[in-house]
Design a protein that fits this description.
single chain, 478 residues, alpha/beta, Rossmann fold, four-stranded mixed sheet, 22 helices, globular
């Protein structure tokens, strides 16, 4: 399968970052959008005690499910099959795409209408089906806009977040003939009308899965626009594609996960639609698909599962909160990463989905500020995993040294010397204090411009007082 995303060009990452930093409209769009999302999340989870108790419960739900993942997947398969859902297993993206294509060919399908699905993005399914002569149309508004622009999503929750209203209006005018307008309601209604007829005509509906319940064989789909419900109920055949980590044990386990997903992602108490699919249409029912297929996609997840530390990556419920609070993602956007999953979660997930050597730069694209771990609803220790992956990248634990050198990830002698000096001083408190005092004197002589660094950043300013000195001053004032 030919991959269209640019994750194979590891050396291109820094070029894309520079391009994104130099793009003022992109930076402005992301800054405005992220500020709004952070505020909404803070408002939705302002009760600290409730938030932390929910996070603890949700983390335990995910940990318990992962601890029993193999047996829960078997239980899910048996329960789904007993209810008439056909279950398929895919070892990688290629096999998953081939299974979707086989179902389409079996039903002589020429059109597929899609609800939002990050796993299908991971599979690059649209491109694969197009090569086979089958049209796949996105029905999620953000995904629809991105598809019109022939781009990939820049955010896992809001795919077109990198575009403002004016850009979307211009795009829809050029591609679909709508009038140029800044009226969001008008643009949304135009897209809805364009898609409505396609739902009726589609041979197959395809969706993702937010949670799959092993004990009931229920596929849960969270959405706001109603396109997910139409996708899974109007066409005669529904295909659900799902990463194997999305399974939970009990139906009651979904409650805390759903509560945190919606509030962490968009600041909503609950989304407009929560779909629960457990079987195809029955003889006495008036709507729903005649056939339901579930494709369980591995694509590197089993490899992650074998490592007790990296297994925590599979807790993710794809809320996007880590992206919204990440100072790096906020400034460069999703496309700079060149991967299906950008931001903090992408930095720890993509190296194992598409190869560590191809994504060795990603773990270093972080300030290690810890904001991602602080807001993660299932308490994934993202900074800890990033540190481990950085160590492996620098030491070449998973990468051939010649590949490292070629891609520019080999540690330079200047960097090695700097870390050796820091380690030496950190082990000698008195020398460390003297060094920090000298550094603080630089506060008065720090130049305003530091070359390329300050083209997109504010020049750093050493603090006038150390943390220890500030603490002593605070104690004296008590």
């Amino acid at each position: 399968m030919t991959l269209k995303t640019d994750h194979l060009a590891g050396g291109q990452f820094y070029i894309r970052v520079q391009d994104a930093l130099a793009n003022a409209p992109i930076r402005a769009n992301f800054r405005k959008a992220m500020d709004g999302l952070m505020h909404k999340r803070a408002t939705a989870l302002e009760d600290t005690q409730e938030r932390e108790s929910l996070r603890e419960l949700a983390a335990n739900v995910r940990l318990r499910a992962l601890a029993r993942l193999p047996e829960l997947l078997i239980q899910l398969e048996k329960k789904c099959q007993s209810q008439g859902i056909q279950v398929h297993w895919a070892q990688d993206a290629q096999q998953a795409c081939e299974q979707v294509l086989a179902i389409c060919q079996q039903r002589q399908a020429r059109t597929v209408i899609k609800g939002k699905s990050m796993v299908s993005e991971e599979m690059e399914l649209n491109h694969f089906l197009a090569e086979a002569g089958i049209e796949a149309l996105e029905s999620d508004l953000g995904e629809y806009i991105v598809q019109l622009a022939q781009e990939t999503p820049s955010h896992i929750i809001m795919p077109a977040i990198h575009k403002n209203t004016q850009q979307i209006s211009q795009l829809m005018h050029e591609k679909t003939g709508t009038q140029l307008s800044h009226d969001v309601a008008y643009l949304t209604e135009c897209a809805r009308q364009q898609l409505r007829e396609r739902f009726q005509q589609a041979d197959i509906g395809l969706s993702g899965v937010n949670f799959a319940v092993a004990e009931t064989g229920t596929l849960c789909l969270v959405e706001n626009e109603g396109n997910g419900r139409l996708t899974t109920s109007v066409p005669s055949c529904h295909i659900a594609v799902m990463g194997i980590e999305k399974v939970v044990e009990h139906l009651e386990d979904v409650t805390p996960l759903l509560s945190l997903l919606t509030r962490s992602a968009t600041g909503q108490a609950i989304t407009t639609y929560f779909n629960m699919i457990s079987r195809p249409r029955q003889p006495d029912e008036k709507d729903g698909p005649e056939v339901v297929h579930l494709i369980l996609v591995d694509n590197g997840r089993a490899h992650l599962y074998q490592d007790p530390e990296l297994r925590d990556t599979l807790r993710c419920i794809r809320c996007g909160a880590c992206m919204n609070h990440c100072p790096v993602y906020t400034r460069i956007g999703g496309h700079a990463y060149g991967t299906t999953y950008p931001g903090p979660i992408g930095k720890i997930l993509m190296p194992h989905l598409t190869g560590f050597a191809n994504n060795a730069a990603l773990p270093s694209a972080s300030t290690l500020c810890g904001a991602c771990a602080e807001v993660c609803p299932v308490k994934i220790p993202i900074p800890d995993i990033l540190v481990r992956l950085r160590r492996e990248a620098v030491n070449g634990d998973q990468i051939n040294p010649s590949v490292m050198a070629e891609k520019g990830f080999k540690r330079t002698w200047k960097e090695a010397l700097a870390w050796q000096l820091w380690a030496y001083l950190a082990q000698r408190p008195r020398l460390y204090q003297i060094a920090t005092k000298i550094a603080r004197l630089g506060h008065y002589w720090m130049p305003q411009s530091l070359g390329a660094w300050t083209q997109v950043r504010t020049a750093p300013r050493p603090a006038a007082k150390s943390l220890s000195q500030l603490r002593r001053d605070a104690e004296k004032s008590l």
